[in-house]
Amino acid sequence: MNGAWLHLGSVHLPIALAVISVLLVLFALVTRSPARLKFALEITVIGAVLSWAAFLTGEKAEHVVEDFRGNVSERLSQEDADLKHFIHKHEEWAEKAHYAFQAAGAFALLGWIFCRSADKFRMPLAIVALLLTGGTAGLMAWTGHMGGQIRHLEVRAAADSNATAPTPTPATGESEGERDAEH
Question: Mean pLDDT, the chain, as a whole number?
């Protein structure tokens, strides 16, 4: 087990909990249910706590990826520059997403403490929670997308509107352009 494995194993749950938090707060708003709002706030706090694992393992994962790439001799220097670019972008967004989740989690904890014994629905609390969890979910999703670009060339190609490189076919490994030229 290495840093990359730990990072990849810990990133998905906080992203999912961020999205689930938004949906739960929205459901609590629609139904005006204090119990549902409390539950949504609890899930937000749990997600914020779990995001620490992903945040703290990111640096170790970066070192594993860079060491792996450095040990593969046939890699081109341009690919290494691209890799470092994607790692840097992912790291920047991860920091923003993590701190947003911590802010949402802190607000959710305070909101939960404030309304834990009350049976009255707190509309302002729910609206602020929706805004914070919505922003957090967006940042977490984008951070995940940026992380996917580090190792998944197909994600990079889909994100790059200028991607004109021929794609290999699964069966033969040759590109469509090469196959068409032969036939």
Answer: 77
